[in-house]
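Hi,

I'm pasting everything inline rather than attaching a file, because the server keeps stripping attachments. The sequence lines come first, and each chain or strand is labelled.
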Amino acid sequence: MNYPSVHLAAEPSLDAFGTDNGWVIALKALLVFVFLVVFTLFNIWFERRVVARMQHRIGPNVNGPFGLLQSLADGVKLALKEDIIPKSADKVVYVVAPALSVIPAFIAWAVIPLGPVVTIPFTDIRTPLQLTDLPVGVLYILAVTSIGVYGIVLAGWSSGSTYALLGSLRSSAQVISYEVAMGLSFVTVFMYAGTMSMSGIVEAQAQNVWFILPLLPSFVIYAISMVGETNRAPFDLAEAEGELVGGFHTEYSSLKFALFFLAEYINLVTVSALAATLFLGGWRAPYPLSLWDGANEGYWPVLWFVGKCLAFIFFFIWLRGTLPRMRYDQFMKLGWKVLIPVSLVWIFGVSIVRVIQNEGGVDQQTLLIIAGVIVALLLASAFIPEKKPADEPAEPAGDFDAFAGGYPVPPMPGQRLPDPVVTVPADASQDQPRSDARDLDAPTNEEQSRG
Amino acid sequence: MNEFIAPTVEYAELSPLLIVLGAAVVGVTLEAFLPRRGRHRIQVVFTLVALVAALLATGWVAAGLDEVEGASGRGLIAAEGAIAVDGPSVFMWGVLLVFSIISVMLFAERRIEGGVSAFAGQAAALPGTEAEREASRQGIEHTEVFPLVLFAIGGMLLFPASNDLLTMFIALEVLSLPLYLLCGLARRRRLISQEAAMKYFLLGAFSSAFFVYGIALVYGYAGSFTLADIHAAVDNNTGSTNLLLAGMGLIAVGLLFKVSAAPFHAWTPDVYQGAPTPVTGFMAACTKLAAFGALLRVFYVAFGGAQWDWRPMIWVVAALTMAIGAVVALTQSDIKRMLAYSSIAHAGFLLVGFAGAYGGDGITSLQSVLFYLAAYGFSTIGAFAVVMLVRDPGGEATHLSRWAGLGKTSPLVAGVFAFFMLAFAGIPLTSGFTSKWTVFSAAWAGGAWPLVLLAVGMSAVAAYFYVRVIVLMFFSDPVVDGPTVSVPSLFTSSALVVAVVATVVLGILPGPVLDLAQQAGAFVR
Amino acid sequence: MTPELVVFWLLSVLTVASAVMVVSTPHVVHAALWLVVTLGAVAGCFLVLTAEFVAWVQVLIYVGAVVVLLLFALMLTRSPASTTGATSRNRPVAAFAGFSTFGVLAVVLTSGFRGIVLDLDSQPDQLGGAAPPERIGDTRSVGEAIFTHWVLAFEVLSVILLAALIGAIVVSGRVRDRDRQEAAAGGGS
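And the predicted assembly:
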């Protein structure tokens, strides 16, 4: 049998990488580090100001212009606090955990493209604004961030405290669950881009449209799962202060706590940068700006890239400012029963469309029409009334046991509190008709009359 | 622009496999969407229909196999070299599917448990708790066993037909995983059942590790997973012999574990005893067949050129297996454990045929082993079906003492069981005799006469404990308030009838099946 | 010695040492953590051998998911600081078995592969000259191998996962109340 061969998307080359000399690599690594630390300080301030505005407050405005130095002051204060190691902690793991959390957050940035190939000022050296790139760049980021989970899990476990342990348990389950949905949302991007390298994906979006347009469902799934992946509100169950004090970092103080804080904010930026790169064209200028020829050259793209990241960060803050925390089981249900199945169906659909396109059977317009019909059908199916389970028979009221299991408990739905005990003077008791309620409470009555 | 050449898959030739695996997936879907009430009936019908369809497809594939030029076999290498659809494969597919149909009929039996199947109502409930009794009372069942058994059958179809070691390893996992689970689902005696599943899983995982390590070493030797390439490498003696020997040994460990040959047999009695009896019958017949098929293919096709290296090892294993199986069976007091040791002994007899490695005129070792597996499978499923019927209030009466005098209270069931015992012992006019005869004569022709002499001796030892059961059933007094023999539904009865008829026919008129096995010819490379 | 070889040696030593720690530490969570180091070091070995796809998948799946699940199970079933349970009187026997296996395999492997050098910079051109020479183990060659030669094995693997999924549900899932009522109404006949 002779099958038609399939045209794959053009493979972008990674020739621009791997040619830097030593000091350029060191310089780029240092710049990425500095960028992340400064951006984190800025983000903390940004978050506090924005949330404050949403809550009709002012927020930090004392230290520096607009309070910009507030985070720096907080950082110094944190560093000067006493470093506590709990007695029941597993010391080595306890000390290693914050580092395990923060290091992967930094090294994930090795493959994030901040801009095109540029000339370093005062030299002739041309280099891409990206530390390096791999043919499997996105996989690398996923792998590295998944190591970051250990920081949280081990911090909770090694603290030797129940709150911390529960927080880390929640967090590990959460990150693993949402990583699946996250990975699945990337699959369609890979199918369209034909590569897993970050710069290649940016390149592919330069040739076509930004992937947010054809792959909107993937983007939505990613946007939801990135919030779960970073343990941010409304999915911040790992450090739900109302339930678990501080969650996994309850026992941490001083610089170790600061490291967790740093890791969390870097992860925030990482997932934003990933979203910008995979779905929003990376460092390339958005539409009206892209009409200007110089917009995608030189150091300008860094500005567009940071702008896109900031937009995502604002989205994160907005979520935190407006949404209440989800319940844990609802959260898991959302991940496993909604996001993952929807992703799978969507990947299935996209691959069918890709095959049809590759074989050249149907033109774009027909495809759009078919897609429209399917969407309409799906929307219509949402109006089909759901079958309600038959009403459960109300449980007999007599079953209510106020001390079930040895603890005072409230009545369940359908149960009824027993009638209040009426204390009757001994001489009047003959007039009282005997009710079931009184039968039940007979000993109590006796007790009371004795007393 | 880079081109990607799409692979070629011979869907028509692979149809039996695809039907079974596809039906398993559909079965899972049925499980998700059907209301619980009618699920059992629909799953049974669906599973049986799928298996019959696969059987018909196998017949169709068998009819259409072409001669291979320049080789003795018929068939082709399908799916980019992953599967050999040749005579032996198709023969094994057919026999496996027949066994599977019979086993699924035993799985479907619900009358003897009083309206529920032999599988746990709710596997997650702790044994002996209120939750378990509640599930039992309400007639909740795990109908997932039917898709699971289909998965296992799919793996078994793939296992002996794989043409490269990687596919073979994956097939091994596909067939094992559902079996591990099924072993832990017995309705009665939950703890023993869970222990069986745990043991089988741990030891099975361990043996898979051996197998895959062996594959890695053989890959290092030959630079390929494909059996034909390994054969070429062995013939040309290209790599390091140490690698080949170590790899061959480790692969043998993995496969011998599955056929329950000594010294890798230790799981067999515990698992056979703990697993639900229909599953035990299924394992005893089908797993053994699939694993022997794979063993034959790997050692005859890939390592055929190195047979002077592996034959001594197989000789020792065969002798040990027969001896342990036959001798230890003498001391057993539980009928399922006794059958387990008997199955070990039979694995030994099969290994004798395998060790002969005779490929000349007449019946080859391969064909004799295939015939033996077909004959043995019917009897063993039948024997376990009888075990299902003899019951105490607490479940199956598996202790041998409970079977005393059964011939007087229920002569028919005892007679059928006695007949299977005679077949196991290899008495003339049963399938056991003809199959032992073909295997031993092929082994003799292959020069393994010391092994054959030992095998005949061990058959005599084995005959002792088979006959002991018969004597116990017919010539001792019935126990007071002894076990009752339940009247099974049509499923079990017809399975039993098929098993008895096959055992008789293969004993008296082995010709047609033997011809089929002979027509299967040799493995295709 | 090339730098690659030095790195490879360091990673190998790390792999073996941490693997020994996995089986010798009495603390079961520490054992899991040493397992992380082992698996990570193996991923590093893959990287040195230019199999980057396999390497990162190894990190993603084994380090990032499997061991996290393992830790998850440990934390759910044990008190946080318990150090008992991982010691056994069979240790000498196990050590003997382990070291003798190691010895045999070391002899077999070194005798089998001594002097064999794998050229990682090029590979035989399987596509009839259409494709440029590629490096072994890159994403493209892995993908092509999976979807041509190993396509059947790849698809059957998904069957294993499905069977495992169903099995996990069977042994752990509880019957929902609605089904319970339904079954009761059906009388379980």
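Confidence is low (pLDDT under 50) at residues 123-133 of chain C.

If the labels don't parse on your end, tell me and I'll reformat.
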